Amino acid sequence: MKKDQNNRDSAIIIPFPGLKDRYYEKGVSSLEAHQFQEAVDLLKQAYQMDSTDPQISAAYLAALYENGDYHDSRQMAEELLKSGVGSFYDVLDIYLMILIQLNDYQQVVSTLKPLFEENEIPPEKAEHFLQLLQLSEKAARNQGVGNSANIEEETSFIHQEQSSQDQLIGLGMLKDKNIHPYLDSLIDMLSAKKVHPFIKTVILTLLQENKIDQFILVEKFDVEKTLSPIELPSVEEIPFFLTVKEQVENELRDHNPVLLEQILDMIKRHSYCLYPFEWEPVNPSVWAAAYRAMGYEIYGESWNSKKLAEFYDIGEEELSTTFAFILKLEEISSTIV
After folding, report:
1. Element (H or E) spanning 124, and its range?
2. Looking at the 3D structure of the chain, how many domains does it have?
3. Which InterPro entries would you find in this protein's record (predicted)?
4. What does the alpha-carbon distance between residue 265 and residue 282 come to, in Å, rounded to a whole number?
5. Which structural domain, as residue segments, surrounds residue 219?
6. What gap in Å lies between CA 291 and CA 281, rounded to an integer?
């Protein structure tokens, strides 16, 4: 008996006090910094300690989704919806996004239709869910017939009056499909000021993949340019982006690799919003200095614009202007990416 008792005692693991909260807080910080795999690893530890905590569950689900772990996040979302842990409609929102990524449009329809029939959709969610239901019904029909049967109906599939989230969903549904029925609407969106810059880049990428060879007006940040999508390099191939990225890597690789990853992720998001326009000012050192300043801001460290400008051999005014623009890009890109 004594031996059995000792075995049982040795099998009991008592976590350090506050360890769950530390995993959660660090996981959320990683999620906000777009370090999604790290966020998944940390939040998984917190979730295993307390799977009934709604905040931990929601954060872990979001991390799985953002990391592209769609099958795992789908399973978790379905468990949360059944158990009632967390806000039902917040979890449902992520669940529907996961289904879209998995091209399971029929399941979106099967999930939303009963809620509408029973009038259980909150008023603030009704318009978004209704549009998502309509888009999914069309996509599910297209999956069944293999092509678009009604061109006039399909042209309203995506347009500039939708929310950015619904536009992104619609563009995701168009991947690997014939986009010509929607081409006029997509081209109009590229010149519309109300359409998010990130959405415009997704549209340009879609037009590139479909080898659209015609000159199109594109507007971003009050700058207009007429260009042909087929002639554009990819976002990653823009020479200026590569130069800034290389300079930041050279300066931070050995000094602070964690900060380097955060800044590189930031540069990638910002370049995606700016694409396909050239960055202004054209001196990459100005941008490298401004991103270094962002690094100081991320860690709550003080910095002197005059000294930083001298170190990079640039003007203090252009550093301040570029830093302010980066703050704007960060605010814009964080709302959708």
Report:
1. helix 123-145
2. 3
3. TPR-like_helical_dom_sf
4. 21
5. 179-230
6. 14
